[in-house]
């Protein structure tokens, strides 16, 4: 008889407790979840997620660390806080996702979805350099980086002719204080950073 | 205790009525004070009952008839108890009725049967209660059902029922299960389907709790025979779309966000104590739980304190049959008290 890996997912009873970790690091108690789905029905973007917020909680309970850190929703969540606002148990899902994003960075899983990672990178470098975002330049850089040169170009032109897009964005007056902020943040690795 | 010992029953809902009935049938004296003109409390607002689809008004008529034939029971209608204190084993109560008359009475035992209220669902902005006319609470829906039966107004076509509105919600201060909603929601959806079989009824649930004789069978019959659709998930919001109510939810079995357009949304609001219960508890020095429901003494389901008993919704959410049972139990406590050391 050949030994093959079972197609049935097996729970890992020895896995380190992710729920306990969230309790320790964020003081968020995942065991309060009633599995009601109120978070997910009202979520701004759950229809585009690979896992709805309720499923994410379940992944935490099942110690599915790999799935959580690699899921697309980790990067496409808008952090609009509706899930938290609606939750009968006040489980702070946006904060959990912040925490998991930090973990994903620390474990170098941030390039699992390269386009999203690229977008974050460009946006952050814009803020770092100018203190503000120039949408036009940011989108152009993003299109070049992802080699989709004309993606959203028609929309961009429309916005440009309506005067909604400026070629060059304004700069922050006090760039030095901003740099100090970034220096302080980058001094520590993301995993050590306190969740905001 | 003297033969003239009297029990004061505060609240003439089904629990207070049953307590008065049992005391009267046993030959004991009781005064039943009801703040409204008619007896029956919450039950008087109901269109049908579970688990046997009976008319609750038939039950009330029967109880009231039986009560009226009892000589030792006096009923004070339109009357509120304004004050009560205990001196040397006697309760001195003052009352005031709707025509402004005031009076006082003495009693040797008190049964509190003030009933319950429903939580104000407008605290949930996302459900639109108090904003959209088609969003009603469960007691208001009983009236919608009655209006349809009486030919006053037609039942809306498609209806969504939300359970656990306020209940099982720490963020709104009611972590407890309100116990009766699973059953009355099944009853209401089943009644709506009885009255208008072509309508669609959706019951949104986290789980359904049908712990009682014939309860599980009742809910199953609503699902299987009345064809009410049970959808697992707690709805997230209600929005208006083209004159219809659009319910957004996650079907937690499929795991996908979904929506459904309906004509009415019925909110099974949490059961909470009445302000009157808090007032009485304060006047009598009764122990209440953190929500304001009266607490029972160890060893008795209906004893609040020496010579003070309670029955029905003032202790916690309870269905009609349970409230009757508590009323009878409170009456038994009073009889045991009044007949202490009585002849065998």
Global structural class of chain B: alpha/beta
Any idea what the shape of chain A is?
globular
Percent helix among the residues of chain A?
A: 40-55%
C-alpha end-to-end distance of chain A: 54 Å
- Please report the distance between the alpha carbons of the first and last residues of chain B: 15 Å
**Any idea what the CATH superfamily of the largest domain in chain A is called?**
Alpha-helical ferredoxin
N-to-C series of helices and strands of chain B: EHEHEEEEEEEHEHEHEEEEEEHEEH
What's the CATH topology label of the largest domain in chain A? Fumarate Reductase Iron-sulfur Protein, Chain B, domain 2
CATH topology of the largest domain in chain B: FAD/NAD(P)-binding domain
Q: Please describe the biggest sheet of chain B, giving its number of strands, its sense, and whether it closes into a barrel.
A: 6 strands, mixed
Strand content of chain A: under 5%
CA-based gyration radius of chain A: 20 Å
* Level-1 CATH class name of the largest domain in chain A: Mainly Alpha
Biggest chain contact? A-B, 22 and 23 residues
How many domains of chain A? Answer: 2
What's the helix count of chain A?
11
Would you identify the regions of chain B where 5 or more consecutive residues have pLDDT less than 50?
none
Oligomer: heterodimer
Q: Which descriptors apply to this entry?
A:
heterodimer, A: mainly alpha, Fumarate Reductase Iron-sulfur Protein, Chain B, domain 2, 2 domains, 0% strand, B: 344 residues, alpha/beta, FAD/NAD(P)-binding domain, 6-stranded mixed β-sheet, 7 helices, 28% strand, elongated
Written account of the structure:
With 196 residues, chain A is mainly alpha-helical. Chain A has two domains: 17-111, Orthogonal Bundle (Fumarate Reductase Iron-sulfur Protein, Chain B, domain 2), CATH 1.10.1060; 113-193, no CATH class. Chain A has helices at residues 18-26, 38-41, 53-61, 65-70, 73-76, 82-86, 93-106, 114-130, 135-145, 153-161, 175-187. In chain A, helix 8 runs antiparallel to helix 9. The longest helix of chain A is centred in the middle third of the chain and has 17 residues, at 114-130. Chain A starts with 17 loop residues before the first helix and ends in a 9-residue tail after the last helix. The relative contact order of chain A is 0.10. The mean pLDDT of chain A is 86. Chain B folds into two domains: 6-115 and 274-338, FAD/NAD(P)-binding domain (3-Layer(bba) Sandwich), CATH 3.50.50.60; 119-271, 3-Layer(bba) Sandwich (FAD/NAD(P)-binding domain), CATH 3.50.50.60. Chain B has helices spanning 14-25, 56-68, 138-149, 181-195, 215-224, 275-284, 320-338; strands spanning 6-10, 29-33, 73-76, 79-87, 90-97, 102-107, 109-112, 116-118, 135-137, 159-165, 201-205, 229-232, 237-241, 244-251, 256-262, 264-269, 271-273, 303-305, 308-310. In chain B, strands 3-2-1-7-19-18 form a six-stranded mixed beta sheet, covered by helices on one side. A five-stranded parallel beta sheet of chain B has the order 9-16-10-11-12. Chain B has a three-stranded antiparallel beta sheet with strand order 4-5-6. In chain B, helix 3 packs parallel to helix 4. The model of chain B has no long low-confidence stretch (mean pLDDT 96). Chains A and B meet through helix 2 of A and strand 14 and strand 15 of B.
């Amino acid at each position: 008889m050949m030994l093959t890996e079972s197609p049935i997912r097996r729970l890992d009873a020895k896995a380190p407790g992710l729920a306990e970790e969230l309790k320790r690091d964020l003081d968020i108690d995942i065991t309060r979840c009633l599995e009601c789905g109120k978070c997910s029905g009202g979520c701004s973007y759950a229809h585009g997620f690979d896992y709805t917020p309720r499923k994410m909680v379940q992944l935490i309970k099942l110690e599915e660390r790999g799935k959580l850190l690699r899921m697309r929703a980790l990067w496409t969540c808008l952090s609009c806080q509706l899930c938290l606002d609606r939750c009968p148990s006040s489980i702070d899902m946006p904060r959990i996702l912040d925490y998991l994003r930090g973990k994903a960075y620390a474990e170098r899983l941030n390039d699992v979805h390269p386009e999203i990672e690229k977008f974050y990178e460009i946006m952050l470098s814009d803020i770092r350099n100018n203190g503000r975002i120039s949408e036009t330049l940011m989108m152009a850089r993003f299109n070049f980086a992802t080699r989709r040169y004309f993606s959203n170009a028609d929309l961009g032109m429309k916005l440009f002719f309506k005067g909604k897009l400026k070629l060059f964005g304004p700069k922050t007056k006090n760039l030095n204080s901003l740099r100090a902020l970034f220096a302080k943040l980058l001094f520590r690795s993301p995993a050590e950073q306190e969740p905001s | 205790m003297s033969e003239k010992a009297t029990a004061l029953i505060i609240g003439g809902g089904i629990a207070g009525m049953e307590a008065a009935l049992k005391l009267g049938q046993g030959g004991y004296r009781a005064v039943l004070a009801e703040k409204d003109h008619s007896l029956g409390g919450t039950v008087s607002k109901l269109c049908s009952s579970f688990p046997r689809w009976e008319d609750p008004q038939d039950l009330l008529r029967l109880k009231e008839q039986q009560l009226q034939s009892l000589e030792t029971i006096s009923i004070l209608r339109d009357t509120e108890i304004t004050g009560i204190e205990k001196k040397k084993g006697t309760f001195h109560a003052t009352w005031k009725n709707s025509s402004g008359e005031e009076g006082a009475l003495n009693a040797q035992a008190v049964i509190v049967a003030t009933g319950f209220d429903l939580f104000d669902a407008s605290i949930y902005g996302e459900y639109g209660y108090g904003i959209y006319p088609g969003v009603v609470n469960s007691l208001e829906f009983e009236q919608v059902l009655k209006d349809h039966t009486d030919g006053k107004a037609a039942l809306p076509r498609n209806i969504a029922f939300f359970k656990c509105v306020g209940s099982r919600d720490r963020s709104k201060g009611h972590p407890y299960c309100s116990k009766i909603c699973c059953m009355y929601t099944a009853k209401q959806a089943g009644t709506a389907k009885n009255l208008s079989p072509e309508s669609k009824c959706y019951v949104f649930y986290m789980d359904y709790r049908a712990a009682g004789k014939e309860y599980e069978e009742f809910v199953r019959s609503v699902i299987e025979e009345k064809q009410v659709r049970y959808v697992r998930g707690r709805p997230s919001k209600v929005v208006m779309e083209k004159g219809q109510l659009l319910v957004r939810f996650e079907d937690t079995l499929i795991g996908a966000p979904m929506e459904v357009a309906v004509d009415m949304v019925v909110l099974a609001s949490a059961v909470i104590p009445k302000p009157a219960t808090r007032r009485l508890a304060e006047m009598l020095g009764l122990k209440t739980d953190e929500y304001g429901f009266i607490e029972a003494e160890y060893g008795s389901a209906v004893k609040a304190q020496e010579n003070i008993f309670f029955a029905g919704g003032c202790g916690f959410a309870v269905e009609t049959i349970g409230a009757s049972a508590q009323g009878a139990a409170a009456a038994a406590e009073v009889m045991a008290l009044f007949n202490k050391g009585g002849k065998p």
